[in-house]
Design brief:
Blueprint: E1 23-26, E2 29-34, E3 41-47, E4 62-71, E5 73-75, E6 78-80, E7 85-88, E8 102-110
Antiparallel strand pairs: 1-2, 2-3, 3-8, 4-7, 4-8, 5-6
Amino acid sequence: MNGTMSKARTDIQAVQVDAVKPVEVAPGVIRRHLPGAGRSDGWLYDLVPGVEWPESDLHPGLARAYYVLFGEITVDDHHLGPGAYLVLAPGDPFRPSTTTGARLLGTSLPG
């Protein structure tokens, strides 16, 4: 330590994700909105088996990243399973499908 006191952090937000209210945003697509900071945001998505995202999800000005927690998704010709990480530039389309069902952690950041 350098002898100076550090200020206590007041910017930490924490939630138990399964306690966040689920919202069905399309048939078979359940979203939980997670805290973010500034223009960043977070979501937890549950996709039921056999679902395809109903329309291309575009977020102008925001880069997005998705981490597959479990299950498998297909995006274009990419088959992504648990532990896969997908990054999209601002405005890139995102329309995953799944035969197994999947849980994704998504974040957005100003691009």
